Amino acid sequence: MTTLLKIQSSLFEDAGQSSVLAQQFVERWQAQHEDARVISRDLATENIPHLDQTRLGALMTSEAERTPEQHEMVAFADKQIAEVQEADVLVLGIPMYNFSIPSVLKAWMDYVARAGVTFQYTAQGPEGLLKGKKAYVFITRGGFYGDDHAQTALVRQYLGFVGITDVEIIHAEGLNIGDETRDKSLAAANDRIAELLAA
Questions:
Q1: Residue 87 DSSP label
Q2: Which of left, alpha, beta for 186 (phi over 0: left; psi -120 to 50: alpha)?
Q3: Which residues are annotated as a binding site for FMN?
Q4: Which residues neighbour 140 within 8 Å (Cβ) at sequence distance 6 or greater?
Q5: How far apart are CA 175 and CA 90, in angstroms?
Q6: CA–CA distance, 194 with 19 (Å, rounded to integer)
Q7: Per-residue pLDDT of the chain (199 residues; tens, 9 = 90+)
Q8: DSSP state of 88
Q9: The overall pTM is greater than 0.90
């Protein structure tokens, strides 16, 4: 069974433009994959805790020596990784906040990137272990910054680092400039969704 994992990170939850675009993609994708399983995660409402010394210590403690609290912390981290491992397709909704990704998304990324599990170090450099997956990324921005912006580069680099190299990024920019600009940008993003799913 094909599994799709949708991750949204807008503080506006389902009403965020990146969340809306991601959901529109998923709904159209589901219509073509009726037997597929879809897992949805809203990082803004699920209160993903930032990785701190206590949580990192739990991950670095052997299973036999972990306290009950540490076992709970590790189980949470393992769940984030397991969902990505199980997914054949990832859909990410990412707004731009202060020129980068939302902090809740960065927190999620910190849990998913784990040495020996989702990537490994080799003599030739790091190797991602989450191979064979397709990612669709919807990035929304109030202004115009382009595909070569640091935010886009960060997303590509991170996904590639854990082994996800088949990445399609769809930008919807200029959303805060005016109604006409916003509507045109969102329409272009929806046209791109249609193209991707028709391919």
A1: -
A2: alpha
A3: 10, 96-99, 140-143
A4: 10, 16, 17, 18, 21, 93, 94, 95, 96, 171, 172, 173, 175
A5: 24
A6: 17
A7: 899 999 999 999 999 999 999 999 999 999 999 999 999 999 999 989 999 999 999 999 999 999 999 999 999 999 999 999 999 999 999 999 999 999 999 999 999 999 999 999 999 999 999 999 999 999 999 999 999 999 999 999 999 999 999 999 999 999 999 999 999 999 999 999 999 999 7
A8: S
A9: yes
How far apart CA 195 and CA 189 sit, in angstroms, is 10
Q: Which two tokens stand for residue 30?
A: 């589901």
> Residue 139 contacts by C-beta under 8 Å, 6 or more apart in sequence?
18, 94, 95, 96, 151, 152, 155, 169, 170, 171, 172
**Binding-site annotation, residues:** 10, 96-99, 140-143
Q: Domain extents for the chain?
A: 3-198
Q: Specify the pairing of strand 125-128 against strand 119-122.
A: antiparallel
Residue 111: strand, helix, or coil: helix
Would you state the CATH architecture of domain 3-198?
A: 3-Layer(aba) Sandwich (3.40)
